[in-house]
Amino acid sequence: MKTLDASSYTTALSARREQSLGQMAYDRLLDMLVRRDLPAGTVLHERRLAEMLDISRTPTREAMSRLETEGLIERQPGGMLVVKEFSLRELIEILHVRRLLERESVTLATGRIADAVLADLQRQMESLLAAGDPDAPGNWEVDRRFHDLIADHSHNAILAKTIKDLRLKTQMFNLSRMPERFEAVHREHLAVVAALRAKDAAAAADAIAAHLENFKQGIIRRLSEV
């Protein structure tokens, strides 16, 4: 068995630490983008972000590079990085693709998700509905769990990753931005869960397609008011 000398071990340990910090920086910056703490058009300065995150500039730079690759921030002439602003057309196109992919995903996932898991998800949704707070952090967490659960149980890794990547680009329109959709979103999710529990793939596909179409129309209405 090959062993590492002290110097190599220290180097490997440092590399793992930097990788971990890079992931942490990415997660925190992504959360800030999703929650609109860094709204569209914000100029991103590596040094300032590193200070805000209280980490070195290397993992911050790695996180920014990853977000740029994913199309969530973009480089302007002169090399300046800014938070990307998606046009209405781009958002509609993304949601059109999401509707196609998530119909397929929920069809494949039908019968593969344990009923106990679905029942627990249903209880969480009903609790959020009863609380009636569009700004509650639980709304975002349950929404993510709902869509990720279906995507992961499609048992198609490429399909699941594509859905998750596209969802990130539409998450600036969460319930805190569209509180009028609060009750409708949870009831639409519950309709999908009910179809999944009944193992009715066609009904689940129709329900998730209707949910995403309603989401799209909500975005169009909101942007038309700006």
From TrEMBL:
InterPro entries xref list: GntR_C, TF_FadR/GntR_C, Tscrpt_reg_HTH_GntR, WH-like_DNA-bd_sf, WH_DNA-bd_sf
UniProt xrefs under SUPFAM superfamilies: GntR ligand-binding domain-like, Winged helix' DNA-binding domain
GO molecular function, one term: DNA binding
PROSITE patterns assigned: HTH_GNTR (PS50949)
CDD domains in the cross-refs: WHTH_GntR
Coiled-coil ranges from the UniProt annotation: none
Keyword tags: DNA-binding, Transcription, Transcription regulation
KW Signal (keyword) present: no
The keyword DNA-binding is assigned to this record: yes
Pfam families the UniProt entry points to: FCD, GntR
Residue intervals of the HTH gntR-type domain: 19-86
Record-linked PANTHER family: TRANSCRIPTIONAL REGULATOR, GNTR FAMILY, UXU OPERON TRANSCRIPTIONAL REGULATOR
Protein name, per record: DNA-binding GntR family transcriptional regulator
Species, as recorded: Methylobacterium radiotolerans
